[in-house]
Amino acid sequence: MAPFELLIATRNEGKIAELREAFASVPVALRLLREFRNISEVEEVGETYQGNATLKATSYSRQTGITALADDSGLEVDALHGGPGVLSARFGGDNLSERERTEALLASLQKIGPTTRTARFNCCMVLYGALPLAETELSAPRVLAVTEGICEGSLALEPSGSEGFGFDPIFIPNGYDVPFAALDQVIKRKVSHRFRAAQRMRQKLELYLGPHLTAGRSAS
Asked: Quick check: 216 pLDDT over 50?
């Protein structure tokens, strides 16, 4: 029996690395968008993390014919009333680099003291596609599962560290004294919002694919 294929529906190499690790123990064949030609990019016009993740998972699954896993996440700053939130990737303007976007966020918090810079990363993950019913039969494609992961923390006064992406250089997770970008990446992936959402998704995937995965192990 051929292994179940799961499309990681992102081109972000940082996300791909985190998701590869999260699903390492699940005997599925992970596929990437770069393996496919003529893939139309999905415009993230949803008003919520779940809305954007659903748009991406649905579109990329339909374009490739493979069950797809997509996520959307954002930084929620209490002093900004939960912003930038779902607009995190576009904060400050559409054409800014990640460094410029981080600097723009810090500039908006110049008058905020170090004790009131609480924030959190929020991630929503959506699985869309078809599940194997038998060796040659699949269920009808649909949204199969939705999970969420949250990492509470605070914002540093200035960026530090060279790892990670996005706002990682300024987000300090609770229980640590350095930002994600300066934290050991093994630790970062274990406490990150995305890893927490992925762990919950892995549990759902293992439940859904239980008979199929068991058959795959027996065949191997």
From this structure: no
The CATH number linked to 142 is 3.90.950.10
Q: Is the dihedral of CA 177, 180, 182, 186 positive or negative?
A: positive
pLDDT at 211: 58
What is the tens place of the pLDDT at every residue in 83-124? 999 999 999 988 899 999 999 999 999 988 777 899 999 999
Q: Look at residue 219 in the predicted model and tell me its pLDDT.
A: 41
**Which residue in 72, 78, 177, 184 is the catalytic one?**
72
Q: At residue 165, what is the residue type?
A: F
Instruction: Tell me the two tokens of residue 137.
Output: 């039969």
Core vs surface per residue 186-220: b (16+ CB within 10 A) or e:
eebbebbbbbbbbebbbeebeebbeebbeebeeee
Residue 171's nearest CA partner among 218, 123, 203, 215 is 123
User: 157 lies in which domain range?
Assistant: 5-219
Indicate the number of domains in the chain. Answer: 1
Say whether 168 is catalytic. Answer: no
